[in-house]
């Protein structure tokens, strides 16, 4: 019989560090070079998340409409230009940041980068495109908000941070009716600036391509100043609920305000939440799914934001099981602070967490994402090695102490939406 190789946790890990240059307009360009790499990825990261918008839905609209026409080409022509060379354009938005990503084959870099520049530097924001986009998004959001999971997610954010807090606020879909060309243009001019931007790229070791990317990034206009975002203190509510008569499931969201990735206990709390509900064989899965049949899935994680961080638990259960499910979740949270984790369970969690890191770092695309996150958090890629070292050496006693310090079940914010 063939014996599979032994499972081992690496003692050391080397994560590539980008080279950095400060461009003429002040933009930081971080480059990850890999000889022979046949794909170029280029990500512009702007402090242009929803906390920076002056009007509802402006941040997402300004981002999503970047490729819907320029002063030189229509949306269809831009899409055809990307498609012809197999190039790729992608956006992502959160409360703090807007990330604009371009990808292309290295052999079509010269043919593609002009289109990339046009998308980022010359968006038209045509009124007819805004109208079509706003109508679709309004309808989509209206349908999405009929789901208990969506209602629970929005209520949980409000309960955790406060209704008027930038991290807790949500807007009625009717605000899409008020979007104008001037709104988007003003937001783009104010937030898509060199002062609010850094760039991460992954490419081969061709210096000409890197120089061309630098010329692209140097065209991001400078506003002459950086406008910081003021974030008020959050005000949490312990419990919130909504009755949905036609619901067949109740959506449960539970959690607690804690701290972001810069905090010395963040990685330790990642281990705690992994044990609780971070993988398919976790304690919450064993309890709510395997033993009680309340749900198909339940998940717990540490959430990192620029100005805050929190622990969150999410699940959808049969309506008749909602109250018991909340009780069982609290019981599992409480057990973490009373009982030591077994050596076998801790070793399983270590292996899964290490495997997840290895998956993320497997290839240049994941390394770009890691570099973006590190830069957003004011650190560098060495944080990966430090995090893995802490996961490797954490003890059952420290896990119990962290749970006791931060996860009193009676202090968890709880939101239930359903029948």
Helix-strand sequence? EEEHHEEHHHHEHEEHHEEHHHHHE
Number of helices: 14
Shape: globular
Looking at the overall shape, the CATH architecture of the largest domain is 2-Layer Sandwich
- Termini separation comes to 54 Å
Q: Mind describing the biggest β-sheet?
A: 6 strands, mixed
Report the CATH topology name of the largest domain.
Cytochrome Bc1 Complex, Chain A, domain 1
Give the number of DSSP strands.
11
Number of domains in the coordinates? 2
What is the typical, i.e. mean, pLDDT? 95
Structural class: alpha+beta
Give the spatial strand order of the biggest sheet.
1-2-6-3-5-4
Q: Detail the poorly predicted runs.
A: none
CATH class term of the largest domain? Alpha Beta
* Beta-strand content estimate: 15-25%
CATH superfamily membership of the largest domain, which one? Metalloenzyme, LuxS/M16 peptidase-like
Work out the radius of gyration: 23 Å
Fraction of residues in H or I helices: 40-55%
Folded structure, characterized:
The chain starts with 18 loop residues before the first strand and ends with a strand. It has a six-stranded mixed β-sheet, with helices on both faces. The chain has 14 helices and eleven strands. The longest helix is centred in the first third of the chain and has 18 residues, at 127-144. The protein has 419 residues and is of the alpha+beta class. It has helices spanning 58-64, 75-84, 109-121, 127-144, 148-161, 181-191, 207-217, 266-277, 283-291, 322-336, 343-360, 364-376, 382-393, 396-406, and strands at residues 19-22, 28-33, 39-46, 88-93, 98-105, 197-203, 239-243, 249-257, 298-304, 309-318, 413-418. Helix 1 crosses helix 6.
